[in-house]
Design a protein that fits this description.
Radius of gyration: 30 Å
Order of helices and strands: H
Strand content: under 5%
Oligomer: single chain
Largest sheet: none
C-alpha cells in the first residue's frame, strides 16, 4: 500500500510539473501572438498615414501646378 501511494505521488508530481511547463509554453506563445497583433496594428496605422500623406502631397502639387497656370 505504501509503495502504491509513493508511485501515485511521484506520478502526480511528474504530471503536475509537465502541466506547469506546458502552461508556461502556452503563455509564452500567447504573448508572442499578442505582440504580433500589436505590430500588425501599428503597421496598418503607418500604412494608412503614409497613404494619406501621399494623397495630401499629390493634392498640394496639383494645386501648385494649377496656380502657376
Amino acid at each position: 500500500m505504501e509503495w502504491e501511494k509513493s508511485v501515485l505521488q511521484k506520478t502526480i508530481g511528474k504530471l503536475t510539473s509537465e502541466l506547469e511547463e506546458q502552461t508556461g509554453k502556452r503563455k509564452h506563445l500567447l504573448e508572442g501572438i499578442q505582440g504580433e497583433e500589436d505590430m500588425i496594428k501599428t503597421l496598418k496605422i503607418v500604412i494608412n498615414e503614409t497613404e494619406t500623406r501621399t494623397a495630401i502631397d499629390v493634392a498640394q502639387l496639383l494645386k501648385a501646378a494649377n496656380e502657376k497656370k
